[in-house]
Write a structure and sequence with these properties.
The chain has about 100 residues and is mostly helical. The chain is about 45% helix and about 5% strand. The two termini are about 20 Å apart.
Amino acid sequence: MAMTDVLSAEDIKKAVGAFSAAESFNYKKFFEMVGLKKKSPEDVKKVFHILDKDRSGFIEEEELKFVLKGFTPDGRDLSDKETKALLAAGDKDGDGKIGADGYIY
């Protein structure tokens, strides 16, 4: 499954472009811009599974660094600071990873 099976390619392009500058990533605005806030819990889980590259059932810090590339190959890597902020927002139990139920959008 591709990200564009769940989200609009145009929305993805706009959102990734809006955060192309280093240290500009804001996960709340990004998820709103790609349309994730309007999606059903089922669609949100589909997006989660696309981003879970190693199929562990979790999105770990290393996968978060490349989260924008999960939406489009043109996306930049997040900085360590941005990655840690995103992880802190979604890691509900402090285990260093985000589960499907802890996904933030």
